[in-house]
Amino acid sequence: MSAVNQSHCADCGQATTPCTGKRGCRHKGKHEYYAVHDQVWIGEAGMDSGFLCISCLERRIGRRLDVADFKDVPVNEPADPWHTERLASRLAPTPVALLEEAVAS
């Protein structure tokens, strides 16, 4: 049986949403399915469609992603159990960001 729903990274080929297609398939903590702002996706990464793992997106834009890069949509919920640890860490505000926000308000 071939794998289904394998949204492969355009650069490295890693499956960003791995699934065997078998009943009961569970891949908690293994998905890198997200939505960033067009400025990041099109402007900085030069993508118009397809998928990139977090590592390849960061390599393309030359920096680490942070919470401000992501759109405010349900797929970007920081507590989603399907996200990789790497993606979850980018979606959650860092303590420094929380402190800067508190000082600004």
Short descriptors:
105 residues; mainly alpha; 30% helix; disordered N terminus
Can you give a write-up of this model?
The chain is mainly α and 105 residues long. The protein has one domain. The chain has 4 helices and no strands. The longest helix has 10 residues, at 95-104. The radius of gyration is 15 Å and the shape is globular.
Count of distinct structural domains: 1
Q: Supply Rg.
A: 15 Å
Principal-axes shape call: globular
The total beta strand count reads 0
SSE string: HHHH
Q: What structural category do the secondary elements indicate?
A: mainly alpha
Uncertain residue segments? 1-5
* Overall pLDDT confidence: 84
Multimerization state? single chain
Helix content: 25-40%
Main sheet specs? none
Could you outline the blueprint of secondary structure elements for this entry?
Layout: H1 38-44, H2 54-61, H3 85-91, H4 95-104
